[in-house]
Amino acid sequence: MDKLVFFPALAVHIATGFLLVAVGLVPILSRKGSRLHRWSGRLFVTLMSVLLAAAWVMTLLRFNAYFAALSATATITLFSGVRVLSRKRPDLDPRQRAKLLDWIATLAVLAIGAWVLLLITQGRTGGKAAVSAALVYAALTYGGWDLWRFLRPMAWPFSPSLWRYEHVLKMLSAYGAVISAFSGNVLTFLPTPWSQLWPTLLFQPMAVIWIAVLILDRKRQRRLAAA
């Protein structure tokens, strides 16, 4: 029974992973808000959902601390990156605040992250302690941030544009998780753990730079509108 479920899930996971490496570039490179950006973004989310469903099935069947940490991080970034689009203005519309589903997903990821962190401290992550620790740090950071936003939706650093920056950061992180898994399994000529860590070192600064550009552009637009 294990093999009848595990290997089909693995095949789906691998196939969608290869597709996502290419598909994920389209919303990154396309003009934000354009039809291509929205369409490719929906395709990315659909494929990521399939990939993560397969990943969680495999994790349940054959538990691996690293795989659980990677799945948890990719899940919270994808889920929250999409959900934040429906929580743009909690200051104007109370319906745009966190729902029960948001709380359940975030708390579940935090619990998984804490569990894997315990396994790391006990030396039960095999040869992937460094990568697992980096993934757990990401999962706990994103989960903790979301809890703060749920509890205090209009507290610092809220602004009417905050959802844009959250969306960019989280979706880039979700794509980074895909590239991390791809690199670790395909680019085997790179030394470990850097074969799986370099996407984080690339995409996190990229997200910060992108957000800075967005902030500067919005300030420029406001100045032009006021002139």
TrEMBL record:
Keyword Transmembrane appears in the UniProt entry: yes
Keyword Cell division: no
Transmembrane segments annotated in the record for this chain: 6-29, 41-59, 65-82, 103-123, 129-151, 172-191, 197-216
Keywords recorded for this protein, A-Z: Membrane, Transmembrane, Transmembrane helix
Record's protein name: DUF2306 domain-containing protein
Annotated organism of origin: Caulobacter segnis (strain ATCC 21756 / DSM 7131 / JCM 7823 / NBRC 15250 / LMG 17158 / TK0059) (Mycoplana segnis)
